[in-house]
Design a protein that fits this description.
3 helices, alpha+beta, YaeB-like fold
Length: 108
């Protein structure tokens, strides 16, 4: 799967819609600390936009995804299990405006 291909976006979107997601205890705790409900991720798959791609990440390729929910812009780091069609959510956060453009698409 090549860098920033539509296939990556399709895999992420499909896995989320089919609930083929591996959630860790760590990500649940981080999301709770940051007041990001699971529904903000699960219900926003249609607005997923890959803003950074890390094909050579440590264990498997990963992508930083921007999405919008009722609560605003959220970034989600997904690790991609291309072979089995699953994604693992590594972290989710609201982008800091000191580090990101106002729309959350570009690092400053």
């Amino acid at each position: 799967m090549q860098e920033n291909t539509p296939e990556k976006r399709r895999l992420i979107k499909s896995a989320v819609k089919q609930r083929n997601i591996l959630w860790s205890y760590h990500v649940f705790m981080r999301m709770q600390d940051r007041s990001i409900p699971r529904s903000s991720i699960l219900d926003s798959a249609d607005t997923f936009e890959i803003i950074e791609s890390y094909s050579d990440d440590k264990y498997m390729p990963s992508c930083l995804v921007r999405t919008e929910s009722e609560e605003g812009v959220i970034h989600i780091l997904f690790a991609l299990d291309v072979r089995d069609g699953f994604v693992r959510i590594i972290t989710a956060y609201r982008p800091d405006i000191a580090l990101w453009s106002p729309d959350g698409r570009l690092r400053l």
